[in-house]
């Protein structure tokens, strides 16, 4: 986006994030993957790490580049993904969407989330903040980076992240 182009509004970012959440809740993971750029990253740091932790220096729950994210999607869509077959029922609530910065074609944004996951009669809740680097393309916004920072001391009681946050 050049300096003469229209800036991306908070409402546009919010609509994009709502659409992303809807794709995930419907288990339309291949379509969700299409929202990412070829150089994208998706990270979920461990809950005891500082906010500025880097995946190349610290252990993360998830630290995927675009290729690994694609492999994760393929695995989760297979019947052999025992942790997620049949698929969990999920519901994502996205709120407090903020545009933090805009420069050239990049939009930095933050949103809070609550992801409910129900499986085998048990409901788990994942709460946190998601930080995005979005890119303006001819096809609309795309995700260059997504980092989900969980607001919990540990993964208990669920003990795992077998869904996409």
TrEMBL record:
UniProt GO BP: 3-phenylpropionate catabolic process
Gene3D superfamilies linked to this entry: 3.10.450.50
GO MF, any single term: dioxygenase activity
Keyword Nucleotide-binding: no
UniProt keyword list: Dioxygenase, Oxidoreductase
Record InterPro entries: NTF2-like_dom_sf, Rng_hydr_dOase-bsu
Keyword Oxidoreductase: yes
Protein family membership: Belongs to the bacterial ring-hydroxylating dioxygenase beta subunit family.
UniProt cross-references to PANTHER family, sorted A to Z: 3-PHENYLPROPIONATE_CINNAMIC ACID DIOXYGENASE SUBUNIT BETA (PTHR41534:SF2), BLR3401 PROTEIN (PTHR41534)
Protein name per Swiss-Prot or TrEMBL: Aromatic-ring-hydroxylating dioxygenase subunit beta
Higher taxonomy: Bacteria, Pseudomonadati, Pseudomonadota, Alphaproteobacteria, Hyphomicrobiales
């Amino acid at each position: 986006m050049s300096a003469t182009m229209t800036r991306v509004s908070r409402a546009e970012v919010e609509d994009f994030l709502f659409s992303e959440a809807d794709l995930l809740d419907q288990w339309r993971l291949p379509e969700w993957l299409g929202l990412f750029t070829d150089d994208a990253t998706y990270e979920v740091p461990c809950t005891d790490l500082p906010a500025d932790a880097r995946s190349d220096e610290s252990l993360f729950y998830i630290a995927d580049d675009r290729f690994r994210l694609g492999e994760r999607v393929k695995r989760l869509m297979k019947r052999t993904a025992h942790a997620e077959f049949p698929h969990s029922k999920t519901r994502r609530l996205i709120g407090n969407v903020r545009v933090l910065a805009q420069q050239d074609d990049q939009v930095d944004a933050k949103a809070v989330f609550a992801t409910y996951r129900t499986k085998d009669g048990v409901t788990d809740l994942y709460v946190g903040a998601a930080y995005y680097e979005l890119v303006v393309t001819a096809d609309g916004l795309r995700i260059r980076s997504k980092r989900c920072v969980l607001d919990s001391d540990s993964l208990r009681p669920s003990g795992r992240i077998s869904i996409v946050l």
